[in-house]
Amino acid sequence: MDALAFIAVLIGFILLMEAVAWITHKYVMHGFLWSLHKSHHEPRKGTFEKNDWFAVFFAIPSMILMYFGVHGTPLALAAGLGILGYGLIYFFFHDILVHRRIDFGLRPKKGYLARVVQAHRLHHAVEGKHGCVSFGFIFAPSPQRLKTMLAATQDKTMRAPAKA
Ligand SMILES: [Zn+2]
Ligand SMILES: [Zn+2]
């Protein structure tokens, strides 16, 4: 099999998952499945939160694709690994860098990673499900742009600044 095609599909699926995550976060998690995502917008009690079910949901297509990948359709393996890769990037950015569920002491001060962290902090600047900004991860808009978007949204309640 063509290694280039394999890599292209893998990277393509990482990028595709950013779009899927953005749409799911904005319209599903802040929509009809807010009941699960709400746990992530409130202080966590214990190790897990209901919101972690989304990671389980996204692991299912990844595992199915990898199954077909090792049983005769190699490009399906690339697609499955792409979804897994996005999951790992998301876990590193979101759960480690921003929310410090495992704290390695990483505090990016400048550059791309600082921008990713700031963009997601601004996602959490609003109380409740309405009027939030910044639903993706890999493509993090600049903090200035997000603050302008936040200021322009009427339908929101700002959250008291967190200590973390
Ligand atoms: Zn959210
Ligand atoms: Zn978050």
Give a verbal description of the structure:
The structure is a single chain. The protein has helices at 3-32, 34-37, 53-70, 74-98, 111-123, 143-152, and strands at 126-127, 157-158. It contains 6 helices and 2 strands, in the order αααααβαβ. The protein has one domain. The model has no long low-confidence stretch (mean pLDDT 93). α3 packs antiparallel against α4, α4 (74-98) crosses α5 (111-123) and α5 runs parallel beside α6 (143-152). The protein is globular and about 55 Å long. Strands 1-2 form a two-stranded antiparallel ribbon. The longest helix is centred in the N-terminal third of the chain and has 30 residues, at 3-32. Helices cover 61% and strands 2% of the residues. 18% of the residues are buried. The protein has 164 residues and is mainly alpha-helical. It binds zinc ion (2 copies). The site of one zinc ion has 7 residues, from α1.
